[in-house]
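Quick one, T. Sequence first:
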Amino acid sequence: MERSQLSAIVLDLLEKETGETYDALDESTTLTEGLGLDSLDMAGLVLHIESHFGIQIETELLDQIKTVGQMLDTLEEKLAAKASEKKAA
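Structure tokens:
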């Protein structure tokens, strides 16, 4: 999946979680200050992302994600690992 597609899906899930409308996601935007997400918003967003993609984002990893770009990097890594697991099975 291309990064732009991934970004569009995250934007959609973010809007569903917060009820807000965002123009676009800039990769340098911080999740807390830039998008105004609090810990409950983050937890909900992560649950939506995990459910949508069938992946798990560990709490330790989540603590390191500060920007939209870092979230997309993490998703790309998780999806690549999931695809590798499917090929190995």
